């Protein structure tokens, strides 16, 4: 699933980080760790942790719990200063026995320190996409969506 819009001429720490995420698997988490500041802050709809080891633990747990995990990086948008960070637009896909195959899109806001290491990684994505895949919760989410939808009559 590793595919990005990065060309060979694009470089810098944000592009290198995007490349790493796009090719990440359970066996190369050390390459991710090398790009993180010791006190990196990671947030997503389920986590808020500080520290490289805690971030890597979350990623390792993801690979242990899910199969065929992959990030497809669609767009890398650096901030004007080369080592200040930027944004990544991506699709995450995985599967497991409970949910089957699933995917969702998201955006990561990345901040970097003066050494070009990732100091903050904030993921933004709709966690309801995941909940809708869990039996039982899927029925509840579909009911809530229909109940809250506004009907527009001509």
Describe the structure.
The termini are far apart. The chain has helices spanning 13-22, 29-33, 52-65, 128-131, 137-148; strands spanning 36-43, 48-50, 67-78, 85-96, 100-112, 118-124. It is an alpha+beta fold. The protein has a six-stranded mixed beta sheet, covered by helices on one side. Mean pLDDT is 85; it is low at 2-9.
Topology:
Layout: H1 13-22, H2 29-33, E1 36-43, E2 48-50, H3 52-65, E3 67-78, E4 85-96, E5 100-112, E6 118-124, H4 128-131, H5 137-148
Parallel strand pairs: 1-6
Antiparallel strand pairs: 1-2, 3-4, 4-5, 5-6
Descriptive keywords:
disordered N terminus, alpha+beta, single chain, globular, 154 residues
Give a summary of the structure in a few sentences.
This protein is α+β, with helices and mostly antiparallel strands and 154 residues long.
Tell me the radius of gyration: 17 Å
Ranges where pLDDT stays below 50 over 5 or more residues in a row are 2-9
Number of strands: 6
* Shape, per Cα inertia axes: globular
Percentage of β-strand residues: 35-45%
Mean pLDDT: 85
Note the gap between the termini. Answer: 44 Å
